[in-house]
Amino acid sequence: MDRSLVLEFARVTEAAAINCAHWIGKGQKNLADGAAVEAMRKMFDTVPISGTVVIGEGEMDEAPMLYIGEKVGKGGIEVDIAVDPLEGTNLTAKNMNGAIAVMAIAEKGGLLHAPDMYMDKIVVGPKAKGAIDINLSPEENMINVAKALGKDVSDLTIVLLERERHQYIVDAARKLGASCKFISDGDVSPVIATSFGTEGIDMMMGKGGAPEGVIAAAAIKCMGGDMQGRLTPETEEEVRRVHEMGIDDVNKVLTLDDLVSTDDVCFVATGVTKGDMLNGVRFTDKYAVTHTVVMRGVTGTVRFIEAYHDYDRKPDYVKIK
Ligand code: VTB
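That is the input. Now the predicted structure with VTB docked in place:
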């Protein structure tokens, strides 16, 4: 992918973030999501790619826009795209920290076509690459990761969604004296924090969305961290969907290379509400101000872009008033 495309991709998540930002704190998560989807979809029409949505808003019959298989872009290099126009719909509805508009773009065939179900995840930054094994217990993983990082396990910080299903991870951390950082929703940004190394997060563990897992894996790939996942289908129908993907063994460990099989990948996210990695959308008298991160797998460069969007000169679909 041409490197200049990253700026085009930034425009797409910026549009999604601006368009849903007026729903922040309004208790309307579906309307917020719809606004993000609509702006993202329309902005894609300006981007010189021939893109196929491989992770999106649902199957063709359940989603009007950005459905799986939909073609986007005004024509150009063929790419596959995983989108989450509003990651953290609840966070947005409640004006809580950490909602983002996010997507990953890769050369054709580069992204796992993860179905909408849960995925067990374990993620670390570059220094602990190779030290994780999702088949081991949380305790063993914590000990191995601490060793790789050259720190005492009691100095380890693990980020996880605060859910009852994760009590076994919390128990392991408590036993070893490691620290847990709980999040209420939105596990893409915390996954990335493992590899930035600026937020004091060493590891992410636990079950979240599989689509979010693939999108986050794109960022981990760009930053040289490590991740493993395992789909956890809960119904016969979900098992069928895993088999349909060509995965015979539902317990198959998905390595980072299984999740994202190419270095020719980009990750882009714009903050909607304020977060640890990105500022949320802010409005001045004249501008909508956005904060975006773009990453390229080929070079590993991570860029932050602060943009000032003039209300009067934006197309209708990114106007906020
Ligand atoms: C997960 C996580 C997402 O929703 O899908 C979560 O990956 C849903 O988990 O980032 P529960 O079913 O336990 O609520 C998000 O947090 C998006 O909001």
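Residues 5-21 form the longest helix (17 residues).
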